[in-house]
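Q: We require from you a single protein entry containing the residue sequence and its fold in token form, and nothing else.
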Amino acid sequence: MQIEELLNKSLNGDLTKKVFLEIIGKQYSYGTFFTDVVKINNLFHSKGLVEGDKMFISLKDEYDITLFFMAGLVSGVTVISVDPEINAFRAQKIVEQAAPEMCVLEEYLFEKWNINKEQQFCLSKKETQKKGSLFKKLLKNSASTDPTEDGDSYPAIMDSLSASMMTYKQPAPETIAYILFTSGTTSDPKGVMISQKNLWEHINTLTKVYGMNHQSRILNNLSLYHADGIIQGPVLAACCNATLVRPLKKFEIGLTGEFLTGIYKYRISHLVVVPAIISILYKFSENYEDSFESPDFKFVISVSAHIEEYLWTNFEKTFKTEIVNVYGLTETVAGSLFSGPDKTIKKIGTVGKPVDCLIKIVDQHNQEVPQGEEGELMIKGDHVFKGYYKNESATQLVLNNDWLSSGDLAIIDSEGFVKITGRKKNIVVVGGFNIHPEEISEVINTHPEIMESICIGVKDEVFGEKIIACIVAKDKSKMNKNILAAYLSEHLEHNKMPADILIYDELPKGLSGKVQIKEIEQSIYNNDAESPDAKFDLQKEIFRIAAISFKVEASNLSINDNSNSINGWDSMAHLHLVTKLEERFNTRFSAAEIMIMNNFKSIESILKKHTLNVV
């Protein structure tokens, strides 16, 4: 893609007045947005930033995130973006490792993360009071030529920055466009380096596969701090001259109806979601079955995690629309293999076929296996990343003669379709988020009362997988689930909290001293299969299931609790709770009932109506 052409069309051409972003009802034209991009680029120049320098950003507002990310791509300043919700230890490790020349953070994060403002140019995000037009005019007339007169704060600094674009030079193909730090162990976060060439070559692939153009309207509400959110959202939209719609601040189960009606309301052509959201939409399909029958709508794009064949088939049948299943890694920008929309590459239950890249299936000796045999999926193409930032040893483990080890086991069937059969690398995908179990074990082991621990992923109907922490305490009288959960909540993001904590006298080990994973998995299965107390207590059973869904201790729950009083009670956890209650009591809730099951009193009342003889 030619960035200069996009800038010219946005600032002076036919895109100037076209809507680029529609965020929670507020519209931003291409002209408005890219004028701000030019201002940020002029700020880079005024501070001496050059192509290849690094900018660390962590902001809450979606316009701000998109602005600084795009400004970095346009100028060649490498963007390192992290979610403001990550813990301080991890944030400090990333900043320490990356050594950015510029930081753009919410004001409170500098103190929270102990970021030294003296080491680089720092821009604080501060809320500003609206000023009257006369006052703004007086301010402008008295403004200094120094763009930091208002202090090094955003958005105040924007008023004093020039909107005139200097002579433009597109960044070199080998320049690193952005670095996304994956979920690795806390002491060793791995930064995936994506070059300008990697990015734009793959954007061309996505545009071609999805058939996107200037008429496309993309609904993508995924996190802008993940590749599928930022790349398959604003970056893809800009390159297609399309419009990106983000109607909700956050997808919530109570807004499912609004989300579905938004397909017609916003004239959406492409919906980008993860399988967990597809599962929620399917669960609440009653009375919304015609949501995708808009003349503008093309198909649903499923990203980030494995989608069950049952869900895929029934979703398409219920909504009379199509799902395109995308397989990719952070290391491949976004995708690599696509199942649809082209009929020649679509087969339900598979990840389809590679587009604009090569693949092969190899054994443990890196030799290709015969068709139909299982092996590791390897990928090669212009979109494959350059390596992990300042981590040559980790890079060498996954890159061999430009072939990327995916870490996933797969087979190629007789028709050439690829089916993922398992995982070689130890990553657990919880609701679309990649999590290293070792990271959680590492945090657990910092507790002074823990002797050892291991965290493993097990299958879960709603989240795809869940993490179970298995621990051995030095003194069992000084350790329980409550104590450890409270400790972990201070050191881990919520989505990395274990779904359950099991306490062992000792972990089962083989003769070599290695923990026997199979035995651990069996013990977890046995724990899940345990019968409820002989003397049945409906409230106690609801709390038992809720504790697993919300990653809290059952003894801390009360009948007066609701979705506002419990931190972990979000949309994904709510769906998990409903599904497990349906399994436990062999019943099925209506969409209307699920909507009001946002407190334990209503849950208990609804369950009593469903069955008078629960056991």
About this structure: The chain is about 35% helix and 20% strand. The longest strand covers residues 450-460. Residues 387 and 559 are 51 Å apart (CA to CA). Residues 428-529 form a domain with the GMP Synthetase; Chain A, domain 3 fold (CATH 3.30.300.30).
